[in-house]
Design a protein that fits this description.
- By secondary structure, the protein is mostly helical.
- The protein has a domain of about 40 residues.
- The chain contains 5 helices and no strands.
- The N and C termini lie far apart (about 50 Å).
- One of its GO terms (cellular component) is endoplasmic reticulum membrane.
- Belongs to the dolichyldiphosphatase family.
- It is found in: Endoplasmic reticulum membrane.
- Required for efficient N-glycosylation. Necessary for maintaining optimal levels of dolichol-linked oligosaccharides. Hydrolyzes dolichyl pyrophosphate at a very high rate and dolichyl monophosphate at a much lower rate. Does not act on phosphatidate.
Amino acid sequence: MHQTNNARFLDLLWRHVLSLGLLTMAFLVSYSRVYLLYHTWSQVLYGGIAGGLMAIAWFVFTQEVLTPLFPRIAAWPVSEFFLIRDTSLIPNVLWFEYTVTRAEARNRQRKLGTKLQ
């Protein structure tokens, strides 16, 4: 849900629809747990609170502790072996990969064309 200033209306709408859909699915799963008599409403409520607190703690841990370590972790030999790289500073990784791959394909096509002549 990275916020950008130049996001289009449909992008923003899609993000909110997706969030609403996921929250709806979570509620339906919670309801089904009570309906099927696996849990009571209080168990589902406490489980939701515990899960929410754990999610917030995990988010804070990854943002404040792990994110500053990403460049060092990406430089480890094992990370280089598995082609792990730090893309935390790139706001839209999918678009970045697309444009870089397209540019590389054009360069290789151009080089191949000059070799054939």
